[in-house]
């Protein structure tokens, strides 16, 4: 991993080891990222949403551990690397538009950094008035 000022530097899509046929399917945002919806593989519960660039997706597919690009910290991170709450990857799918990924995992421990089982429990429901 490249380091810059103590942080891991983003790896450009052209420099990533992601298979070209997969990279060609991705429709990235202006920051080169794709939303990744993380789902518990057996219950189908949505756990969290993360962001991946080509390199994070490559690392996820080849290591079996969910890897993301942290927009706030500006570095790659492997879920559970420090907390122990790892995500073992079972399957990854791309949506029909290529702008989102579904990552099915076996979550060990809480998925949310707050300690909640999911980030959507931690965030809470919004009122629907329709």
What does this structure look like?
The chain is of the alpha+beta class and 130 residues long. It has a domain at 46-125: Roll (Ubiquitin-like (UB roll)). The chain is 15% helix and 32% strand. It has three helices and eight strands. The chain has helices spanning 20-23, 54-63, 119-123; strands at residues 3-4, 7-8, 34-40, 46-52, 67-70, 75-78, 87-94, 100-107. It has a four-stranded mixed β-sheet, covered by helices on one side. A hairpin with a 4-residue loop joins strand 5 (67-70) and strand 6. The radius of gyration is 15 Å and the shape is globular. Residues 1-7 have low confidence and may be disordered. One of its GO terms (biological process) is L-histidine biosynthetic process. It catalyses: 1-(5-phospho-beta-D-ribosyl)-ATP + H2O = 1-(5-phospho-beta-D-ribosyl)-5'-AMP + diphosphate + H(+); 1-(5-phospho-beta-D-ribosyl)-5'-AMP + H2O = 1-(5-phospho-beta-D-ribosyl)-5-[(5-phospho-beta-D-ribosylamino)methylideneamino]imidazole-4-carboxamide. Zn(2+) binds at residues 96, 112, 119. In the C-terminal section; belongs to the PRA-PH family. Catalyzes the hydrolysis of the adenine ring of phosphoribosyl-AMP.
First and last CA, distance: 48 Å
Low-pLDDT segments, ≥5 res: 1-7
The CATH class of the domain at 46-125 is Alpha Beta
- Please work out how many helical segments DSSP would assign: 3
Strand order of the largest sheet: 4-3-8-7
Radius of gyration: 15 Å
Q: Helicity range of the residues?
A: 10-25%
Instruction: Based on the coordinates given, report the CATH architecture of the domain at 46-125.
Output: Roll
Determine the mean pLDDT.
92
Strand runs, count: 8
What oligomerization state is this entry in? single chain
């Amino acid at each position: 991993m490249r380091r810059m000022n103590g942080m891991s530097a983003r790896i450009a899509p052209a420099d990533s080891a992601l298979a070209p046929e997969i990279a060609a399917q991705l429709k990235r945002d202006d920051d080169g990222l794709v939303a990744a919806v993380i789902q518990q593989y057996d219950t189908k519960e949505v756990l969290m949403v993360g962001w991946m660039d080509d390199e994070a997706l490559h690392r996820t597919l080849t290591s079996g551990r969910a890897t993301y690009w942290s927009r706030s910290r500006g570095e790659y991170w492997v879920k559970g690397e420090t907390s122990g709450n790892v995500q073992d990857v079972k399957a990854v799918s791309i949506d029909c538009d290529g702008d989102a990924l579904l990552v099915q995992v076996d979550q060990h421990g809480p998925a949310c950094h707050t300690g909640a089982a999911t980030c959507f429990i931690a965030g809470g429901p919004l009122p629907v008035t329709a």
